[in-house]
Specification:
The complex is a heterodimer of chains A (212) and B (624).
Chain A lengths: L2 H12 L2 H13 L4 H21 L5 H18 L13 E6 L7 H12 L3 E4 L6 H11 L3 E5 L7 H12 L7 E5 L5 H6 L4 E2 L3 H13 L1
Parallel strand pairs in A: 1-2, 1-3, 3-4, 4-5
Chain B lengths: L4 E7 L3 E6 L4 H7 L18 E6 L7 H6 L2 H5 L2 E3 L9 E4 L26 E7 L11 H11 L4 E4 L1 H13 L3 E8 L6 E7 L6 E7 L3 E8 L5 E8 L9 H10 L7 H23 L7 E8 L1 H8 L19 E4 H4 L8 E4 L9 H9 L9 E5 L3 E8 L1 H4 L5 E8 L19 E8 L2 E6 L7 E2 L1 H13 L16 E3 L5 E6 L10 E4 H24 L9 E5 L1 H5 L2 H7 L10 E5 L1 H11 L1 H13 E3 L8 H9 L4
Parallel strand pairs in B: 1-5, 7-9, 10-13, 13-15, 16-25, 18-27, 19-21, 25-26
Antiparallel strand pairs in B: 1-2, 3-4, 3-5, 6-8, 8-9, 10-11, 11-12, 14-15, 16-17, 17-18, 19-20, 22-23, 23-24
Classes of the chains: A alpha/beta (212), B alpha/beta (624).
């Protein structure tokens, strides 16, 4: 592998934003294919971060620090990427539910999904059921991913799922949920298709939801 | 034979309760008034409500219990009280760490001296008794006697009126009246008819989410006669504010109504606390003629009987921001019949009257030094005050925010974590590879409280066992592989502990501290950024609250929770909110100052602040 790609890969894992940016610039200047930089440098690094996370070597802080480094590189890379460079694994509309303004966990899930090749439509925080529905319709989403950090707002996940059913969209897409107070049991109880305990596992849950 | 109710025997508390078959053990304990720790509010995500089955039968283990409890614990009969339901009469053993009492309760605090500006004043009167030749009513008689001394009565509330005749006659027409000022009027309200020469008492209480701190004050001298603490009984319905709001939401309109239940429990404890304080100095709560209560916005609302639903969802707005007063009788408080409860202003949904009281007590609004004042809890409220000389304004510029720092410093979500109770490691040092611990009460350690875990993380960093990201580095002799394959650091071996189990620090624990300190530091940086200041510009750094008093500043600086300022700029001031409440109890001028502080503060919402996520991630890294 190209030394620059190796540096980007290692820089993302170690969470060194400045280094990643520098090396992405160098890689672009040296004529490396942006799609290759993305895939072999960044996506591969985030996959490794996810693996270390699942094995208990990495925790949320390292993951956040790594994701920040990836994003800083991605910002430089994006203007150079062609449609053909990126093969979408699926379209995900993601947001924190109505009443809840917490987005760090949600952003991490979005970054991990993006790193795994999903097309992300991030609606931010305090997202109404209506907004989820409109966006899901207009982009023809495969998955709606909802986050809640508060026990007082997690009830809006069910409200959104019910609204999706009323809008006739429930059977045409999958719903996955997560957030500190959410449990597997709760996800099943409100009729979600998937639940992931953390951002890394959200990737495998999203993939498995679309595989059958 | 199936039964519709079972008897639950709660040991070692020794309480029994009859519950229906659908009731969880947590609900049973709540019904019995036994306060179990339930950090998550009973949804099964925290694993803090462990109880051990001694006799009888419970419902099968739930998936949540299998996840939260280890195999050893399950074998030993441990269950989660929020999950298990009785299927026969049962007898339970509640381990000390699952009980919310006893705890170390902190009531001391520092504040600036303030002069008296009494709201309620005593008037000693002798009234000529009625006779067949003098048939004036009791109130006419009273008013006439008062007029002779130059006082006019505006109103006499019904409860006072109802006790008036008996009071005057029992005291042979000599009485000490408590009269309360009416804003903008010369006339006063009659609050109480007390025996001659009895002291005029006031009550100031800081209603913490976890702890209550109460002060009994002589309103004439301004002197504190007694102080005491108690646990907030609402803990049994959820450890943090959000869990309690969720409990209220889920039990709205039920019997008992959630909000009513939480208010009733709190008021009952407050009544008990007031009676205890008064008994200690040979008085009765009937002599308490004025009270001030401070608390975070949710505690304020739950105490006053205001809705909290809107505090649980964005944009997290309080029902009321301004100060207000209400009769003690309306809350069920057993004080003097005409006593008034004063509630200072709230700044925002997560910056409440307790923070206003803290700022008031330390005169942060008028400080001549660039000051940061914060109170660390599950939510950490921070205020930055910039003196007028720096801003060219008339008064200080004040910016406030609230950080979601989580319950780690209260010992929650920490493997060996516990509250600051006997047996908790509160200080820890690693000297030449050896771990030295100091516990509360000097007994063998059974867990670690906030200041101890803070020390542990700081010491592990210095010893090189942790890197700046918080990753455990191999090489130390006390580092070992846990049963789950992950690394953990042995703090206290089983043989030296008070319960025969190893006490360890895991990466999980470090992570909790990292998230907490990251949130606090990010809040500090954002306030400084908003004011265009650098950390080093801060001339005074005030750390209030219980944890803030016991924490080792050097540890906090080592992990980077606070900016690296010279140590002499820091002040640890204890429960300053309680001091502020006392000041408002004895001074109308301080009440006005509190309202002014609340109006003056610019509140910064962190969750939607454009640089919060960046600052937070930055602050997750350890080191100065």
């Amino acid at each position: 592998m190209d030394q620059l790609l190796k540096d980007i890969y290692a820089g993302v894992i170690d969470g060194q934003s400045a280094l990643v940016q520098e090396k992405v610039k160098d890689a672009l200047a040296s004529g490396l294919n942006p799609g290759v930089i993305l895939k072999e440098g960044m996506i591969a690094a985030m996959r490794e971060v996810g693996r270390r996370f699942e094995e208990g070597e990495f925790y949320v802080p390292e993951m956040l620090i790594a994701a920040r480094a990836m994003q800083s590189g991605l910002a430089l890379l994006k203007p150079h990427l062609q449609e053909s460079d990126v093969k979408s694994a699926g379209k995900v509309v993601i947001g924190t539910v109505k009443g809840d303004l917490h987005d760090i966990g949600k952003n991490l899930v979005a970054m991990m999904l993006e790193g795994a090749g999903f097309e992300i439509y991030d609606l931010g925080t305090d997202v109404t059921p209506q907004k989820f529905i409109e966006t899901a319709r207009s982009v023809d989403a495969d998955i709606i991913a909802m986050s809640a950090l508060l026990t007082t707002t997690m009830t809006n996940m069910k409200v959104t799922i019910d609204a999706l059913a009323d809008a006739g969209l429930r059977s045409s897409l999958k719903v996955m949920v997560g957030g500190a107070p959410i449990t597997d049991q709760y996800a099943a109880q409100i009729g979600a298709d998937g639940y992931a305990v953390d951002a890394s596992r959200a990737v495998s849950v999203a993939k498995s939801l679309l595989s059958h | 034979m199936t039964s519709s109710s079972f008897t639950i025997d709660l040991e070692p508390v020794g309480r029994r309760v009859q519950v229906g078959t659908k009731s969880t053990l947590l609900a049973a304990a709540q019904a019995a008034g036994v306060e179990l720790v339930a950090v998550c509010g009973g949804i099964g995500s925290c694993g803090t409500c462990r109880v051990r089955l001694m006799t009888g039968e419970l419902s099968p283990l739930t998936l949540i219990e299998e996840v939260e409890l280890g195999l050893d614990e399950i074998a030993a009969g441990f269950r989660l009280a929020c999950q298990a339901r009785p299927v026969s009469d049962v007898r339970l053993d509640i381990p000390p760490e699952s009980l919310t009492t006893p705890q170390r309760l902190q009531v001391e605090g520092q504040g600036v001296e303030v002069g008296l500006d009494p709201v309620v004043v005593p008037i000693d009167l002798h009234i000529s008794p009625p006779s067949l030749f003098d048939l004036r009513s009791d109130t006419t008689r009273l008013k006439a006697a008062l007029a002779e001394q130059g006082f006019v009565i505006q109103t006499i509330a019904l409860p006072v009126l109802a006790g008036l005749s008996e009071g005057l006659r029992a005291q042979d027409w000599s009485a000490r009246l408590a009269l309360r000022r009416v804003d903008g009027k010369a006339a006063k309200n009659l609050v109480a008819v007390l025996p001659p020469a009895s002291p005029l008492l006031g009550l100031a209480v800081d209603i913490g989410t976890t702890k209550l701190a109460a002060y009994l004050v002589d309103l004439v001298s301004g002197e504190t006669l007694a102080k005491d603490g108690a646990m907030n009984p609402q803990i049994a319905f959820g450890e943090d504010v959000i869990s309690r709001i969720a409990y209220v939401n889920e039990h709205a309109g039920q019997h008992p109504d959630g909000r009513q239940l939480l208010q009733d429990r709190l008021v009952a404890t407050l009544n008990h606390l007031a009676a205890q304080l008064c008994a200690g100095v040979g008085n009765s709560p009937q002599q308490i003629v004025e009270a001030v209560f401070v608390g975070n916005t949710a505690m304020h609302h739950l105490f006053a009987g205001l809705p909290v639903h809107q505090l649980g969802a964005s944009p997290y707005v309080p029902v009321i921001g301004e100060s207000f007063e209400l009769p003690a009788t309306a809350l069920g408080l057993s004080l003097a019949r005409g006593a008034t409860v004063y509630l200072p202003p709230n700044i925002a949904g997560y910056v409440g009257a307790d923070h206003v009281a803290m700022l008031l007590a330390l005169d942060v609004a008028r400080t001549q030094q660039i000051t940061i004042a914060l109170d660390i809890g599950t939510n950490t409220e921070i205020t930055l005050s910039i003196p007028a000389r720096r801003t060219g304004r008339k008064g200080n510029r004040m910016l406030s925010c609230s950080c979601a720092s989580g319950p780690a410093f209260e010992g929650a979500h920490i493997n060996a974590g516990m509250r600051a109770a006997p047996g908790a490691i509160e200080r820890l040092q690693i000297i030449a590879g050896d771990v030295r611990v100091h516990t509360i009460g000097g007994v063998a350690p059974v867990g670690i409280c906030g200041s101890g875990i803070l020390d542990a993380v700081a010491e592990l960093l210095v010893a090189g066992v942790l890197d700046r990201r918080g990753v455990l580095q191999k090489g130390h002799s006390r580092l070992r592989q846990a049963t789950n394959g992950r690394l953990e650091f042995l703090l206290v071996p089983a043989a030296a502990s008070g319960h025969g189990h190893d006490l360890v620090v895991s990466r999980e624990d470090v992570k909790e501290i990292q998230l907490a300190k990251g949130a606090i530091r990010a809040g500090i940086e954002i306030l400084l950024g908003e004011a265009g200041l650098m950390p080093d510009d801060v001339e005074q750094f005030i750390v209030a609250g219980a944890f803030g008093t016991y924490l080792d500043l050097n540890s906090a600086l080592r992990i980077g929770m606070f900016p690296a300022l010279p140590i002499e700029r820091f002040r640890q001031v204890g429960n300053a909110a309680g001091i502020g409440a006392k000041q408002m109890l004895v001074s109308a001028a301080q009440r006005r100052a509190a309202s002014q502080i609340a109006r003056q503060i610019e509140y910064i919402e962190l969750t939607t602040h454009p640089t919060f996520a960046e600052e937070f991630v930055q602050a997750l890294t350890f080191g100065k």
